[in-house]
UniProtKB/TrEMBL annotation:
It comes from Streptomyces liliiviolaceus. The keyword Methyltransferase does not apply. This is L,D-transpeptidase family protein. Residues 39-63 are annotated as: Disordered. It holds the Pfam family Big_10. Transmembrane segments: none annotated. One of its GO terms (biological process) is peptidoglycan-protein cross-linking.
Amino acid sequence: MNGRPISGASVGARTRNGKGALALVLGVLLLLVTACGGGGDSDSGSGGDKDKGKDSSQADTKVSQAVVTIAPKDGADAVKTSGALKVTAAKGKLTEVKVEDTKGNPVEGKITGGGASWTPAAHLAASTKYKVHAVAKDSEGREAAEESAFTTLTPKNTFVGIFTPEDGSKVGVGMPFSVRFTRGITHPEDIEKAIKIKTEPAVDVEGHWFGNDRLDFRPEEYWKSGTKVTVTLNLDGVEGRPGVYGEQAKTVKFTIGRSQVSTVDVKTKKMTVKRDGKVIKTIPVTTGKAGYETWNGQMVISERLRVTRMNGETVGYGGEYDIKDVPDAMRLSNSGTFIHGNYWGGDAFGNYNASHGCIGLRDQRGGGDRGAPAAWFFDRSIVGDVVIVKNSNDRIIDPDNGLNGWNMSWEKWTA
C-alpha cells in the first residue's frame, strides 16, 4: 500500500511539474557525459575528436588505384632464365622493385617507361628460387605493393667455357682472354652480355668469335705492363643454344707482367729479345727449311714444356722425325709451331734454316745446361709473351691458330 501512493505521486509530479523533472534529468546526463569525457573543454575537445574521426574514416576507404603485376606468377616453377621476369604497373608508377635469390644476391634491373615496367638487366641463374617485391604509387601518392616467388628451370643440357689464362696468373703483354665452349653457340649476343671485363688502368677490350665455340678478348694494342684484369663469367642460366644452358659463374683475375717481345728474322737467322722496349739479348736461331717455312706474324706463347717429345705424326709429317727429350719448348700455334731447344742441329744456328717450321735455339738434350741459349730464353719467358717472325717466305699465321689474334686488324676484330 505504501509503495502505490509514492508511485502515483511520482507520476503525478512528473506530469504536473515537467520542467523541473526535465532539468533534473538533463543535469544528470550532463554529469555522466562530463565524467566519461574526462573533463576539460568539452566543446573544443569533442568537436576536434569528431573531425579527426571523420577524416580517418575517409582516408581508410581511399585505397591506392595503382595495380602491380608480377610475371611469372607466385609459386611458378621451371621458369625460363631469360624473358620471363617482368614487373608492370597500371594506374600508377613503379617506385621500387627488389629481386633477390634465397642467399640475398640482388638481381639488377631498371624501371622504364616512366614507371610503367621493370625488367632485369641480365639473365637469371638456373635452378634458383627468386623473391620479388614491388611498390607503385597512384596519382594521389598512395602505395600499392605486390610480392611473388618463383623458381627457374633446371636444364637437361649444359655447357661450360674452358678459359685461359688461369685465375691468379701473371702473363705477358700479348695474352688474350680466350674461352672455348663445350657446345657450339647459336646465341652469341647473350654470351657476350654474360662476360664482363674490367681493367686497371681502364682500356677498351673487345671480343671476337672464331667459329661458334671460341671467343677471344683483347685490347687494340698489347697490354700495358702492370695492368690488372678481372673477368666475370656469368654463364649460369645463359641459353647458349636452344635448350642448352650455361652452368658457370666464376670470376677470373690475372695481371700483365713485364713486357717481353722477341723478333725472329728468318733472313738473318737471329732473334732479338726486347724487355720493356730495350734489347737484352740477340740469339742465333734456325727456322723452317724450304718447303717447311715458319709462319710470319705475331705469335703468343701459350704453353711451356720443360722437356717434351716431338713426333712428326702429331702434326701431319708422318714419320719424318721422332725426337725425344726436346728441351725448353714453348708453343706458338695449335698446329705445332714451337720455339724450343735443339741439341741435334749442329752448326745450323745463325747459319741456315733446317727445321720443319719450328724456331730452334741451341740447347743440351733434356735442358741440363741452363746457360744454353734456349734454356736462357725459356727461363726468362712466360705465357703471353710475344714472338714475332718476319721475312719468311710463308704467309702470316691465321689469327685463330693459337692465341694469335694480333694478326687481325682492330677494324676486323671489332666488326
